[in-house]
Amino acid sequence: MHLRFWGVRGSAPTPGPTTVEYGGNTACVELEAPGEEAIVFDGGSGIRDLGLKLKARRIHLFLTHFHWDHIQGIPFFVPLYNPANHVTIYSSRFSAPLQASLTGLMAEPYFPVKFDALGAKIDLVEMGTSKTQVGEVSVGCFEANHPQGACGYRIESGGASAVYSPDREHGHPHLDQVLVEAARGAGALIVDSQYTPEEYPSHQGWGHSTWPESVRVARAAGVKRLVLFHHDPSHHDEMLRVIEAEARREFPETYVAKEGWTVEI
Q1: Domain limits of the chain?
Q2: Does residue 28 contact residue 44 with C-beta atoms inside 8 Å?
Q3: 3-state SS class at 202
Q4: Does the N-terminal peptide bond of residue 109 adopt cis geometry, omega within 30 degrees of 0?
Q5: Out of 3.40.50.10490, 1.20.120.450, 3.40.50.720, 3.60.15.10, which CATH number does the structure's domain 2-264 have?
Q6: Residue 34 pLDDT greater than 70, yes or no
Q7: What is the pLDDT of residues 85-133, one digit of tens each?
Q8: What count of other Cβ atoms lies within 10 Å of the Cβ of residue 142?
């Protein structure tokens, strides 16, 4: 199982000379799994480049929630405009209504093409507690602590597993434990690590976490690899290199997610 990162930023895209190494696009991760069906997590600005290169006609897009940095690329995802494609978009009961959210995203006066006028066949699925099976891949969702609601996903295929939880804030005892249990024994934990410990106090309640908290979850869950994700717009390449070095002293198998990077699980 391979995961390819098309967008690793949080909050807003940050293109420019100080983000060349780690990338400036917002959240989008592709699962390169066995079979001919594409599986994608989140539709931030990174999904545009993915759409230009994607060959699959059957696409499964899993959304964690509907804040701009996770959906802003959807109107520019070209597979949605091809009548030969079949796209299923998933969300969870932990966030806003799926149909209304996507319709509003492309409503006047924000976009010239309406969501219900796209060319592809589109199915919408709001997931409950049951796992969704896509070929050999199983995807289950769990609740995350985030303003207006969000979820994370546990992905399993052929004995390999990964957890994707891009937006969560620590400090909710029940949901903190939900994440630990969801990540138990995973090959990789891709998790919200937007702030440094020094930055967090002035951003408490904004829905994001810190890299030391991500290390704590990785240790408690016994994951094999920790991937720090959802980088703050103010964190330039040099700062992210420093964060990675500091985190590795606490959990050696720590990596700061990079746009264009592929990780094997």
Answers
A1: 2-264
A2: yes
A3: helix
A4: yes
A5: 3.60.15.10
A6: no
A7: 999 999 999 999 999 999 999 999 999 999 999 999 999 999 998 999 9
A8: 19
